Amino acid sequence: MSLMKRLIFTTLIFFVSTTSALFAQSVQTGIEFYEEGNYERALRIFDDIDLPESNLFAGKSYFALNNFLKAKYYLNKVDNTSDDIIWEARYTKALADFQLKNFGASLDALYNIKENSRQLSVRREAYTFYRDLISYLSLDQRFKAFRAVDNDSVRLNLVESAIGSVDLASARSLFSAYKNATVDPDTTQWSSIESVLDDSARYRQRYNPDQFPDAPDGITYNIGVALPEFHLESSEFEISQHLYFGIQLAIEKFNSENSDKKAFITYRNTDALASNASSIANDMVWNHDVDAIIGPLFSEVAAELSKYAELYETPLLTPLANSDNLNLNHNYTYQLNPTFAIQGKKMAQYAINTLGYDTLAVIAERGSLGEPSAVAFLDEARKLGGEVVRYYVEDLASDGYDISEYVQYFDPEVDTVFNYNIDAVYAPFTGNIAQTLISSLLTNLEAMQSEITILGSEEWETVDLDTRWLSQAEIYYTKTFEVNEDSPINQEFTSSFRLRFDTEPNKFAYIGYDAANVLLETLKRVKNPAYLREGLEGFNNYRGLITGVSFRDTQINQEVKVKKATSEE
Questions:
Q1: Which of 92, 208, 394, 429 is least surrounded by Cβ atoms within 10 Å, i.e. has the fewest?
Q2: Dihedral, CA of residue 405, residue 410, residue 416 and residue 417, to nearest 10
Q3: Torsion of Cα atoms, 545 then 551 then 555 then 561, to 10°
Q4: How confident is the model at residue 440 (pLDDT cuts 50, 70, 90)?
C-alpha cells in the first residue's frame, strides 16, 4: 500500500471513529435530557442522528409528548441492532397504538413480544399490559379489535376475556365469529367456553353490567377546555381565567392522588364566535385525541360545538349554559347548570310535595328565559295532582310591565266567578326586566294586602322585603350555584387556590373545579372513556364545592336548591 493510500485510509478511520464517538456522546446527552423530562430539547439532538438508539429515544420522546404518530415513525426505523433496543421500540410502538385506539395492532404486537422477546423486563411489561388491555375493551372496541388482529390466539383471548364482561348474547356472537374466522382452530379450549355460554343461569352469575373493567396502569386522559380569552381590563376576564384555574386545580389534585392514571388539559380559545367551533373541535379530536371537552361560555358557540361533540361522540360538558335547546337531539352534550325548565319542574315539586300547596298561579314574560320555567312548572304541577288555576305567560313588555290586570285575579274577592284561594304564584322573572317585574308584582300584592306565597327564579334572592309591607311574606326561589364558605372542604380549596394562583377564587373557580371533577370522577369509575357517556348519565349525588350534580339518566344536572328569602333583622 502506497504512503498516500495508507494516509487516506488512516484519516478515514480516524474520521469515522471520531464521528461515531461524537454521535454516541450526543445520543447520551439526549438520553439525559429525556430522563429529565426535557423531551423537546432531547428531540433537537435525536432528530439529527439516524442511529437505532437515537430513533428509539426520539420515538419515546414523541410518545411522552402525546405525538403518537411521530413516535411510531421513529420507532419503525429501529432495526438491525441489538435485541434490547428492538424489543423496547416494539413495546413503545404497541403503547402508541393503544393511545391511538389501534387496539388490534397493539394486541398483536404485545402478544408477539410476550411470546418471543428474550428481554425479561420488556416481556413482563408486555404480558401485563396485554392482559389488562384485552379485559379493558368495550364491546364495540372488542369487535373492531377482533377484526383487526392477525393472530388467532389473540382472537381467542378476546373471546375468553369477554365472558362475564359483556351480555350473554354478545358473548355467544363473539364466540361464533371466532369459530367462523379460524381456519385451523385449536378446539381444546372450546368445551369450557361453550359450557359457560350454554348455561344462561351460570352466565348471569358471572355477568355484572354495573362493573367496569380496570384500565391498564399508566392510562392517560385528555380533557379539552374551550373557553374565550378576554382582555385583562374586561369585566369578563376573571370568568374564563378562574374557570380555567379551577379546572387546572382539579386536574392537579387528581394527578397527585392517582399514581396509575393521569389527566392532562388541552386548551383552546373560542372567542365569542360560533364559527370557531369547527376548527376547535376538529383540532382537539384530530390532534389531541381529547376524551371530553369542558366549555364553552356563549350559547351560540356551545350550540355549534355540541354538533361536533355528537359527530365525534366526545362528551361536551358546559359549565354555565342553561339553555333548554342546547342538547336538543344531541346525545353527547351535558349541562352542569340546570336549565330553566328543570328549575320550573323542581319548584313545582317543592310547592306541592314540600309546602303542601295544591292551588297555584303562574305569571311570566313570553319569550323570556322564564317561559320554559313556567311551562315546566305547569306540566309538573299537573302530574303531581296540583291545579294551576291562573296561567299567564304574556307579552308583558307591551303593557309597560304593568301586570295589575293579571295579578288582580289572584285575589278571591276580585275573582268572584271562581273564587280561587290561590296558595302561591310562580313568577320566574329573568333578565334585565326581572327587577322591574318583581317590583310590579310586589306592589300589586301589597295593594291587595295579599298573603299569597311567592315562588320565583334566582332573581328573587336580592329582594329587600324590609322596605315593604310584605316583610312577612314567604318567598322561595331556585338556586343553582352556592358556595358554603364555612365548609372545611371549601376552605381547603380556597387556601390551595390562593397558594397556587396568588389570588382569591371567585364563584367561577368553584364551578370550574366542580365541572372538572364531574368528568374526572366519572373517568375514575368507568376507566375506559368509551363508557364516559354512560357514566355521566349515571352520575348522581355528587356534592361539589358550589353545586350538587345528579344527571339521573339525562344530560342535564337535576340538582336545584329551593331557598327561602329572609328579611334582615
A1: 208
A2: 90
A3: -60
A4: very high
